[in-house]
Amino acid sequence: MLNKTDWILDPSSCPGFLKAEKIAHVEKSGQVHHTEHLHLKIPKRYGLVHITPLVEEIIDRSGVHDGFCFVSAMHITAGIYVNDAESGLLEDISKWIENLAPFGENYKHHQSGEDNGDAHLKSFLTNHALTAPITNGRLDFGTWQRIFYAEYDGLRAKRILVKVAGLAP
Amino acid sequence: MLNKTDWILDPSSCPGFLKAEKIAHVEKSGQVHHTEHLHLKIPKRYGLVHITPLVEEIIDRSGVHDGFCFVSAMHITAGIYVNDAESGLLEDISKWIENLAPFGENYKHHQSGEDNGDAHLKSFLTNHALTAPITNGRLDFGTWQRIFYAEYDGLRAKRILVKVAGLAP
Amino acid sequence: MLNKTDWILDPSSCPGFLKAEKIAHVEKSGQVHHTEHLHLKIPKRYGLVHITPLVEEIIDRSGVHDGFCFVSAMHITAGIYVNDAESGLLEDISKWIENLAPFGENYKHHQSGEDNGDAHLKSFLTNHALTAPITNGRLDFGTWQRIFYAEYDGLRAKRILVKVAGLAP
User: Fold this and answer.
1) pLDDT per residue as tens digits for the range B60-69
2) I need a surface site. Which of B5, B40, B76, C24 has the fewest CB within 10 A?
3) Could you tell me which chains touch chain B, where touching means 3 or more CB pairs under 8 A?
4) Predicted complex ipTM
């Protein structure tokens, strides 16, 4: 049975992170576009893991001083969201998602041989991507805003796209 | 009564697509901004229809090599989302949306003469807009990511805004 | 007890708006990036309030002719969304959010001394941020699209970030 122990809830890091891969870096007339893919393999089926530091490293490497950072799961069984990194809250969020889009229902999608219909629905609740603002070379966030990766079908290789675009200093 | 036959579920095309209208094209110092409106009239009240090819054509016409493609329903009774184009999953998604934001409830909005209160709520579940990354002139998507238009109050003329912004080659 | 009177539902203005603070304005090769923080203190715990005019004023001050306007709550107990400004609908939306993410449950987050676990979950339903398109110096919106701020833990000072980025005329 699916229970809370099937979720990795990590308010401070991203278990299963493998590497950052540089995809493209383009500069033109003071505009910088920098793209990397984060490779990861979450060691449980479900997870909510903190990725703000990984994103901030990419912003540093981009050299963008003012602009946007776009972060997207490259899969349709995962999500990216902004919320608080309090550990009790992570448990609340995981239960809320599981309750609204439960595992193990008789989804039509399973007739295609899959068993992850719930993962597709869960991704609507967190959204699969977000945009974050960059001002003075840093995330222009409020005190408690943190970026999380939500895994709904883990134990396999996944990627997160991060594209930073904006003005050089 | 509302039932699944009221939904058009099309994993490969957009029934009711009418035309793409060019709204604006601006270039400055190697930056390109290109905007089109897609006109459509979905032939049922509800629908989940595949629009990735329509978006890709606009990216091609924009000439943007690296940047973002913003896709938005211009109505508050429709949505835009990224997920898999598997036909069973489309049915799962339609039932999940209908269950969480059902048609025919006694919504206060109906006192204004409307009967589409459910459509407004449904739009929160899918979101009404999304941003997609463009790298090397193409959508920088994972294997199964596809863009869908979600119609929650069809049988009437609607528009989707697509704005492509980024660096020329 | 929480009831509908605890919600401020304002389809035409933002009660509790305090001031707009200019954070940054950068121009380079015809690209303009302009950032402001809106300060507000919603006078009830919950609220759905109309902020399109406040956003439009910032777009005017930015001088951007074609581009994007990014609007984000800087808190993880609030949201930003686009929908209709019909007053009955605001009541429907508030009830729908309360029903799917109820106040007063036995959330684990409350063991940290907080009582706003519901607010964190509510923010997933509306999302916490949005991107809006700007064409010819104005929001490129459909007839009924309006920007709302959703407060889920009010009676305290909050901020909304607005970053406008794009091409000068």
Assistant:
1) 999 999 999 9
2) B5
3) A, C
4) 0.96
CA atoms of B33 and A152, how far apart (whole Å): 35
* Token pair for B104: 């025919």
Query: Which element (helix H / strand E) includes C98?
Result: helix C87-100
A27 touches chain C (CB under 8 A): no
Residue range B90-135, pLDDT digits in tens: 999 999 999 999 998 899 999 999 999 999 999 999 999 999 999 9
Dist CA A118 CA A79 (whole Å): 13
Between CA C158 and CA C78 the distance in angstroms is 9
Cβ–Cβ < 8 Å for A39, A19: yes
Q: Classify the phi-psi angles of C136: left when phi > 0, otherwise alpha if psi is within -120 to 50, otherwise beta.
A: left
Per-residue pLDDT band for C104 (boundaries 50, 70, 90) equals confident
**String of b and e for B104-124 (b: at least 16 CB within 10 Å)?**
eeebbbbeeebebbbbbbbbb
Within 8 A of A127 by CB-CB distance, chain C residues are 127
Q: How far apart are CA B41 and CA B64, in angstroms?
A: 28
Query: Between β-strands A46-50 and A7-10, what pairing exists: parallel, antiparallel or unpaired?
Result: parallel
Q: Which helix (H) or strand (E) holds A160?
A: strand A158-167
Amino acid sitting at position C37: H
